[in-house]
Amino acid sequence: MTAIFQPEGTLFRATEHAGGPWSPDMLQGSATTALMAREVERLAVRAGFAVRRLTFDLWRPAGLRAFVVETSVLRDGRKAKTVQVRLLDGDTEIGRCTALMTAQGEESPRDPFSPPASEDRAPETGSPPPAFAQKWSRYFQNVSVRLIEGALEKPGPAAAWMRLDVPLVAGELNTPLLQAVQAADFSSGVAQIVDMREWTFINPEVSLYFFRPPEGDWILIRSRTRVGTSGAGLTTATLSDRCGPFAEVMQAMSFERRAAAAQAS
């Protein structure tokens, strides 16, 4: 069965379906972050806490290899816990997730100042991207995309529903949290504002802030990118499910102009 990772004892081996856009032999960022989020979710369920923040630092490119996931508790409070998940290729740390979890209350106050939730079009009403855009990476070929605003192949803000259609880990169902995390990595791509024949852009980190748990398998990304100075930028996104918004995403962006030879090719 097609999957992004195959479990091998305590290891997770990346399959060819984990390949990213810059090289088919390197992990898609969505695969990296979702695998770490899987372990955070297991810890949260065990503790009976809610996942409130996930901050991923993506330290170096990762090949299609077998990885170890290591966890540690940085703060074990009664109302808040902070855990750390490390993704390792042998002794080399590929990335790290720092997660905040909080105890779940019995009720929430009503916010009289919050604007009414917008009624976004359902994924069934959206349009798939052009075939060439869906082939940007092996991983992306296993993601269903339905655009309701903007376009992936044209610069500018956009809104797109996404769903990973194969198991992240073979033999397991993708939870709503995993769907949200894997979708969040695409925020900068959904809101790309440059001609990718002239510029490259990376996000060496991504942070998600949840104000309620996500539901279902379709995740809507509504994102926008801002550019500053010295190649710096910031992508922000709102994640929604069929019930409305549930999280905010931030990605620190770095832009670099391609060499003239690369632009001409």
How would you describe what is shown here?
With 265 residues, the protein is of the alpha+beta class. Helix content is 15%, strand content 41%. Strands 1, 2, 3, 4, 5, 6, 7, 8, 9, 10, 11, 12 and 13 form a 13-stranded antiparallel β-sheet that branches. Strand 5 and strand 6 form a beta hairpin. The radius of gyration is 18 Å and the shape is globular. The relative contact order is 0.16. The model has no long low-confidence stretch (mean pLDDT 90).
Q: Using only CA atoms, what is the Rg?
A: 18 Å
Give the N-terminus to C-terminus distance in angstroms.
37 Å
> What is the count of helical runs?
5
Q: Pairing-aware structural class of the strands and helices?
A: alpha+beta
Helix content: 10-25%
Shape: globular
Strand tally, please?
A: 13
Please summarize the sheet with the most strands.
13 strands, antiparallel
On the 0-100 scale, what is the average pLDDT? Answer: 90
Offer a few descriptive terms.
single chain; alpha+beta; 13-stranded antiparallel beta sheet; 13 strands; 265 residues
How are the SSEs placed, and which strands pair?
Elements: E1 5-8, E2 11-14, H1 29-47, E3 49-58, E4 66-76, E5 80-89, E6 92-103, H2 131-134, E7 143-149, E8 158-164, H3 176-184, H4 187-190, E9 199-202, E10 205-210, E11 219-227, E12 232-241, E13 244-257, H5 260-264
Antiparallel strand pairs: 1-2, 2-4, 3-6, 3-10, 4-5, 5-6, 7-8, 8-11, 9-13, 10-13, 11-12, 12-13
Helix pairs in contact: 1-3
